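Worked example

This section walks through a single chain of length 131. The input is the sequence exactly as stored; nothing has been trimmed or padded.
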Amino acid sequence: MTTVETIRSLVVGAEAAELPTIAGELARGLAVVLTRLAAPSPIVRTSKEESRDLLTVDEAAERLGVPSSWLYRHAKELQFTRKLGHRTLRFYSLALERWMDSRGTLNPQRESIRAVSATTKEAPESDRTPK
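Given that input, the structure is written out below as tokens.
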């Protein structure tokens, strides 16, 4: 029997006098469920098994749909990055997938481009003409 079936059978089989108490407990349970659903899933550092699946910059860039230069610029911000040496980066593949899932996007560069576009104003027509 699943958890949902168990709850349903308890509610259906309850005495009328127990229903207010059950309703209160269900309301508390609903609050917990909604809180857990609203909270972002944490990005957990990978285990030793997962560390075997390290991606190169080019492989990670391809999965993310960004240029490799984007990964170098944002490496310190990305929790799935492993720095091996000067300009030598690797990326934990499973953690990268989790990060993509948590953001709900397959291309983080699009958001960077949107942010830049929103803050940059187009030059007036008079400024674009050569002098």
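What to look for: The radius of gyration is 25 Å.
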